[in-house]
Amino acid sequence: MIAFDQIARIPLVPLLVAQGLGIRRRVNQLPEPPGARAGADGEGPKLRLLIIGDSSAAGVGATSQAKALSGQLVSQLAKTHRVHWRLEAATSATTRVILDHISSLMPQKVDVVVSALGVNDVTRASSLKTWVSRQQQLVDLISESYGAKLMVASGLPPMGDYPQLPQPLRWVLGEQAKRLDKGLADLAATHPILTHLPIDVPFEPHFQAEDGYHPSEEAYALWAELIATHIRENLKG
User: Between 18 and 58, where is the model more confident?
Assistant: First the structure.
């Protein structure tokens, strides 16, 4: 069944395109922060970690990778493990871009994969069917070629709550984000290594980067803590 927002957006296409271009010019101004994208840290049982995704995984909004998602997640996990980690992420990446990139690499065995994808699939109007299919291909690749025991897929953010997005673009993107996030959660319920972790970060000014769109360093810290707790709980036993 076609949802109401999918029908309603048709006459709004010219306006939505204009609004989208304006937002894209603004949010792409923040760079990916400098810093290490691979390394080892901590003491304890060995944990091989791969982080994949879009600009949020790449740390846009932070001043360094150490204060971005990867650095803060490694810092959390290093309290209990010897973490061997790698970051493969890029601004504007969709699931297809990351799938193609990961497929092109020489597979290295990992224990856990953390993914942060979906926002660019939403803005590029990926259908639910295409989104779920590509996520299925990604988790199958991670399982079969990388040998991961666990893949943690971060839920899509509530794009309908972004104050920097003008209406009606905010409503259209918000409804699509909800739809894709539910598709991701449904897929996780059927796959043995995939889990869906909703992003439970309050939508408050200090949790937003200066562009009002990407996470701040405080948000990355909270997000990393949630993921680290989720990983420990799912790897028990």
Answer: 58
